[in-house]
Structures are given as structure tokens and as C-alpha cells.
From TrEMBL:
One of its GO terms (molecular function) is nucleic acid binding. InterPro entries: RNase_H-like, RNase_H-like_dom_plant, RNaseH-like_sf, RNaseH_domain, RNaseH_sf. Residues 143-261 form the RNase H type-1 domain. It comes from the Eukaryota. This is RNase H type-1 domain-containing protein.
């Protein structure tokens, strides 16, 4: 009685094909089961090479089944070398249509060329210049940030208020104990608006590196119900202000990020009238108009 173990792994035809594949990829393949065969896909391959090797395994199994049916129903015997060319042809199609890139590695180069796959070189990273801009005269700009070490985990938020001369008018940080990063970002925005209202800063530019926080001002449904009332109260406060919200990449928000991290060292709300010493280098970097860079 023919078994799948014999057909796909143990018969001479299958063994020849698996030996050929092992020599092509230059790796020992354990053909005791499909799980052990697929283990070779778990190695550190580039996305394109991993696609090619996975496709080769799948196509090899498919070709074995195809050749077996040819023998049984058409009485036509296909040599294993011809079968290997079928595997190459089908695998080439998958590899060339892969959107993944390859590594600059000779081992991968040999594998891809063996399957007639065009190498997809990795794209060069795009470099974006990120600049922090001060507000216009009579406006106050507050950069905020929130973070959590876990989801949930120890969380904190913070912010820095600056005027049109890029001078600090105040900074704050708040330890939020156990929370999520999004919750911390929202609390940072809430505290910034409440503090601006309390200090009479009626022209407020709020800037964050969280797209979700920016979206929450337009879609209040994004705000968790535990913060909803306080959030809506802050939105009402902004109606009595000249208020704008903007997004900045994380690289341009390093001052707020550093200030927020200080909150983890305290159990309560902290307010500074001047820049904390540990943030002075980042603050001066922004004030001098020096750029940061984002690689994407």
C-alpha cells in the first residue's frame, strides 16, 4: 500500500529531488516530516530568498504528486531531472513576483540564480530632515509626548511650552503608573491644554509625534471611555482659544520625549519654570534650528 511518507519522502524519485534541493540551497534537509523540511525556512533569510525557498519546497511536493499521477493515469514516467526543472520554473515565477528584497550575500545570490530569480536589491533608505519650528509672535507652542514600557506598563507623559523666541515658559511631567502608550499620549495632550488655559495662554499650538492623538481631536470616539469626559472638557477649552494641533516625527520631538522620561522617576506631577538640566542639550539643538534626520 502506497503511503504519503513513502511517496513524498522515502521513494527513490523523491529522495533524488530532495537531495537536489539540498545541494542547490547548500543546506542539509531533514526529510523525516514536512515540519522538519520547513525548518530551513526559519533560518535568517532575506524576504525574497525566504519566499524562493518556501516556494521551492511547496513546488517540489506538488511536482512529486504530479509525476506520480502521470505514471499512474498516463503510464508516463518523468525523470527526476526533468521534474527538477519544473520546480525551478514554478519557483522562478514566485521569486520574481516577490515584493521582498534580498541581502548582499553570496549564499543567497547562488540560490536565487539557481532558480532563475532576478535579485531585488534593497532600497536605499530615504532620509528626511526634521526641524522643530517655533510659533509665531504671541503664540505658545507645546510639544508633548507619552510613553509606556509595556502594554500596559509603567507610563509617563510630559511636555514643554516655548514662545516665539524658542524660550521655555514651562515644562511638565506626570507619572501615570501602569497604563498604555496611547493613554499616556492623551493625558499629555489633556494636561497641556489645561495648563495653557490656567496660565492664560490663549494662542496654543500643540504638537505631538502621535498620529492617533491628532486624529482624536477630530474623532472623539478614539478616546477611551475613562478619559472621554475630561477629553471633551479640554476640547471645549480649545474653543475659547486660538488652537491648532500638528504632527511631528519622533526625531523632532526629542525634548518632550526626554522630559516625559523624567516622570518615571517621580510619583507625582512635576512643573519646571525653566528647562531641566538633563534636557538642555536637546533644547539648545532645537533653539539653534539644527536639524534631526529620519531614515525610512
Amino acid at each position: 500500500m502506497e503511503t504519503s511518507q513513502h511517496l513524498f519522502w522515502d521513494c527513490a524519485f523523491a529522495k533524488n529531488l530532495w537531495t537536489w534541493l539540498a545541494s542547490t540551497v547548500n543546506i542539509v534537509i531533514d526529510t523525516s516530516s514536512i515540519d522538519t523540511v520547513l525548518n530551513i525556512c526559519k533560518k535568517f533569510w532575506s524576504p525574497q530568498c525566504k519566499t524562493v525557498i518556501t516556494a521551492a519546497i511547496v513546488n517540489l511536493i506538488d511536482v512529486i504528486w504530479f509525476c506520480r499521477n502521470k505514471v499512474r493515469f498516463d503510464n508516463k514516467i518523468i525523470h527526476w531531472k526533468s521534474a527538477s526543472h519544473m520546480v525551478i520554473s514554478n519557483t522562478s515565477l514566485a521569486g520574481n513576483h516577490s515584493s521582498g528584497s534580498s541581502f548582499s550575500d553570496m549564499h543567497e545570490f547562488v540560490i536565487l540564480k539557481a532558480f532563475s530569480v532576478t535579485i531585488h536589491a534593497p532600497k536605499a533608505p530615504r532620509i528626511k530632515e526634521v526641524l522643530w519650528h517655533p510659533p509665531i509672535v504671541s503664540w505658545i507652542k507645546c510639544n508633548i509626548d507619552g510613553t509606556a514600557k509595556g502594554c500596559p506598563g509603567p507610563a509617563t507623559c510630559g511636555g514643554i511650552f516655548r514662545d516665539s523666541n524658542a524660550a521655555v515658559v514651562g515644562c511638565f511631567a506626570q507619572n501615570l503608573h501602569i497604563s498604555t502608550a496611547f493613554h499616556a499620549e492623551l493625558i499629555g495632550a489633556i494636561l497641556a491644554i489645561e495648563l495653557a488655559s490656567k496660565n492664560g495662554w490663549i494662542s496654543l499650538w500643540l504638537e505631538t509625534d502621535s498620529q492617533l492623538v491628532s486624529m482624536a481631536f477630530k474623532n472623539h470616539g478614539l478616546v477611551p471611555w475613562r478619559l472621554r469626559n475630561r477629553w471633551l472638557n479640554c476640547v471645549e477649552l480649545t474653543k475659547n482659544m486660538r488652537f491648532i494641533i500638528s504632527h511631528i516625527f519622533r526625531e523632532g520631538n526629542r525634548c518632550a520625549d526626554k522630559i516625559a522620561s523624567i516622570g518615571l522617576q517621580s510619583n507625582s506631577f512635576i512643573w519646571w519654570d525653566s528647562i531641566p538640566c538633563s534636557v538642555s542639550d536637546l533644547f539648545n539643538w532645537n533653539r539653534l534650528g539644527l536639524p534631526d534626520y529620519r531614515f525610512c
